[in-house]
Amino acid sequence: MAEVGRLAGVSQVTVSRALSSPDKVSPETLQRIRQAIAQTGFVPNAVAGALASNRSNLIGALVPSVTNVVYASMLHAFSEIMWQHGYQIMLSETGFDPEREEKAVATHLSRRPDAMLLTGIHHSAGSRRMLVNAGIPVVEVWDMSDTPIDCCVGFSHAAAGEAAAAFAVKAGYVRAATITAGDERAMRRQLAFARHFERLTGQRVQRVDFSVSATLGLGRDGLQRLLTDGLPKGAVIFCSSDQFAQGVLIEAGARGLKVPQDVAVIGFGDQEFAAMTEPGLTSLRIDRQVLGQVAANALIDRFRSGAVGQAVHDIGFEIVRRQSA
Amino acid sequence: MAEVGRLAGVSQVTVSRALSSPDKVSPETLQRIRQAIAQTGFVPNAVAGALASNRSNLIGALVPSVTNVVYASMLHAFSEIMWQHGYQIMLSETGFDPEREEKAVATHLSRRPDAMLLTGIHHSAGSRRMLVNAGIPVVEVWDMSDTPIDCCVGFSHAAAGEAAAAFAVKAGYVRAATITAGDERAMRRQLAFARHFERLTGQRVQRVDFSVSATLGLGRDGLQRLLTDGLPKGAVIFCSSDQFAQGVLIEAGARGLKVPQDVAVIGFGDQEFAAMTEPGLTSLRIDRQVLGQVAANALIDRFRSGAVGQAVHDIGFEIVRRQSA
DNA sequence: CGTCCTTATGAATGCGCATACATAGATGCG
DNA sequence: CGCATCTATGTATGCGCATTCATAAGGACG
User: Could you give the number of structural domains in chain B?
Assistant: First the structure.
């Protein structure tokens, strides 16, 4: 920067100003400085800038997995808005593991991000403490809590599970089963679904639980296991993700079972392909774009106005009825 | 850090050493320092550390899109290894846009990453210049080039297209079509496929091109358009991604067309679901895990040994034959 | 013409750490 | 016992910028 200044015949300060607030520098000087920058190929050192100004323009983002499109698309919408506001994303995957999340929180905070995005509302005590101490805006997504670290945007998983059960009963199903991945939020939906369905119909809900993430293949397995366990004809299966649901559809097809007559399916997430399967998949839609956008805007708001403003954002969900249930 | 030192009765340097090379500090002192750290909740400032040491332990990663699972899973494998080596990932999406990539390169470099990962081998002149000037290891993935910026790991898209054509001809198909997304690498595969197929059979290859990313829905559209254009019975369709291929499968099913008898399909990417569709999808497999891992290790190598070592890594591809072709 | 404000710039400082160099005590060995 | 060597620690310095305060040169105004 000093080098650029020398070339332009000004001091380092003036170069700094030319970059951060060009209107405070006379047009001719600005011109010379810009030329000197082009000439030298100068790239400002944001590390030094961050140290001096105590603002990094970095946002730390912690998601369970980027390969899961539901998190990826939320992240995409989030980073899009952040990028427009001049912020960059530091990303780590936590793999649904609180210990790993805690390590990631520590390393992220050591880089002094201006804000953090976390997935879910359940974090280790250590993570919470560090985040509170950091004194920066924190947004937790994909869930809701009355006691967020700072603010949260998501929806009620219990309400989603109940709504699915109510929908199923209203649609005339009297027998139900669930296929659930090893994800704490999915389990809460399952629980709410099963409880509500049993309360409404008096019929016990069959279940298959996996301890890992949902895949199409496991969905096929899931249906097979339910059938082995004596799933009655005409039952509806509430899947914790559309991957499972699509697997069920395919397995049903391979076995000559008609959907929804022989077996009905409700997915979760309403992913792009849900509208395109045969038959179309009935699913709970979460608007992941909106989720990411609301989260981003919540942070931007907090940058502007301190830690005031709405702390809990409910983006809700919607049941999209197609042919599978 | 000085504060921690005061509490432990030592100077700032000793605290610094206790964190970076604990074996150079006496056990008792180390003990006291650790206690002081726990007591104060001290979190080291990596920004200052980076400025002082000129090493950031940050890796910049530029991918077209995180919502596309092929890039996401490569990124996952890459960041996993980088994380193990103590590096963190700064992520930006470029959306297949060189201009946007150039901006991202500039902002990334301003944060002085220790290395960069880029997708593809085609970059703007400005991007190339900045990256070369930065003097850090750069790895380009998903493609191969004789003149990488620094090093690259990928495979030959032309060879992949040709291999698909050779496979189709050998399998007895005499008519072919392609469905291609608006992605430069996909177009190169399409071109190689069409050329080779035409050379081998003398039959012209029908084509449908989209200017956007592949989705299942567009795959359905694609088959529809090909049929409208008079796709002959028994033709094979080479899709630029498994999303398209699955769409074709579903559309064929909805129309009562038998796969592979009435229409055969070859996908690209061999995504998780390819083995699970009905019928199973024949696809070109790229090992995205290996891609990410090799890229990560190439950078680690370069950290250790300077800019020597292998510059071009061909991870190849493989045709996975299932039932769809 | 002196005072006050405005605009454009520069000098000085410090952000929090890593690094090079210095120092002091302990240990080894002939 | 004296010198070399090693271990544990400290002092000084600077990374490259943003920020604060100071300064100089013009107007505006009564």
Answer: 3
Q: Which domain holds residue B188?
A: 157-285
A100 with A144, same domain: the answer is: yes
Same domain, B123 and B62: yes
8 A C-beta contact, residue A86 and residue B77: no
**Structure tokens of B168?**
């189709």
Which of 90-149 (A) contact B at CB < 8 A? 90-93, 106-112, 129-130, 133-134
CATH number, position B245: 3.40.50.2300
Tokens 């190929």 sit on residue: A41
Same domain, B109 and B162: no
User: Does residue A116 share a domain with residue A10?
Assistant: no
Cis peptide before A137 (omega within 30 of 0): no
Contact flag B47-A51 (C-beta cutoff 8 Å): yes
Whether residue A193 has pLDDT greater than 80: yes
Q: Provide the percentage of residues in chain B whose pLDDT is more than 90.
A: 95
The model's pLDDT over A82-141, given as tens digits with 9 standing for 90+, comes to 999 999 999 999 998 999 999 999 999 999 999 999 999 999 999 999 999 999 999 999
Task: State the alpha helices, DSSP H only, in B89-138.
Answer: 98-110, 125-134
pLDDT of residue B320: 97
